[in-house]
Amino acid sequence: MGKTAVILKQKIDNLGIPGDLVSVSSGYARNYLLPKNLCVLAGKEELAALEVRKEQIRKKAQKEHENLSSLARTLSELVLNVPVKTGENGRLFGSVTTMHLCDLLAKRDIQLDKKQLHLDSPIRELGEYTVSVSLGHSIHASFKIVVVSE
């Protein structure tokens, strides 16, 4: 059987991501990929459109990288006060969680997912701590929090 060049429209495990030009068996393309609208045949027009699309994707990725770098700089300068209820000896009722921190950041118009934040250990006492953040595109930042009694 022959091979067919196709451009993927969606991510397909063990094959590629959207925009990839891949060579697959003709039967796989004809019987699976094309009927499910997962790809288009790689003709002259499609290849030209692919180059334009790749340029758009590259510009979008560059813009996103710049935005994340700016956010990383903003976070590195941030000191966030975290008011909590405490008992005797400054012990917290519960602990400061990443969800709690996300809510406080949202009040400052910084939208992060709790999965992006990393605490070395649960925060159960008053004091100053550093929180690391994974922003994506291999950009990491950290910011300080100060846990204070309400």
Summarize the structure in words.
The chain folds into two domains: about 5-65, Ribosomal Protein L9, domain 1; about 70-150, Ribosomal Protein L9, domain 2 (Roll). The strands form three sheets. The protein has a four-stranded mixed sheet. It has a three-stranded antiparallel sheet with strand order 2-1-3. A two-stranded antiparallel ribbon has the order 5-7. The model has no long low-confidence stretch (mean pLDDT about 90). The longest helix is centred in the middle third of the chain and has 33 residues, at about 45-75. The protein is an alpha+beta fold. The protein has helices at about 25-35, 45-75, 100-105; strands at about 5-10, 20-25, 40, 80-85, 90-95, 115-120, 125, 125-135, 140-150. It contains three helices and nine strands; from the N terminus they run ββαβαββαββββ.
What's the arrangement of secondary structure elements?
Layout: E1 3-8, E2 21-25, H1 26-33, E3 39-41, H2 44-76, E4 79-84, E5 91-96, H3 98-106, E6 117-118, E7 123-125, E8 127-136, E9 139-149
Parallel strand pairs: 4-9
Antiparallel strand pairs: 1-2, 1-3, 5-7, 6-8, 8-9
Summarize the model shown.
The chain has 150 residues and is α+β, with helices and mostly antiparallel strands. 33% of the residues lie in helices and 35% in strands.
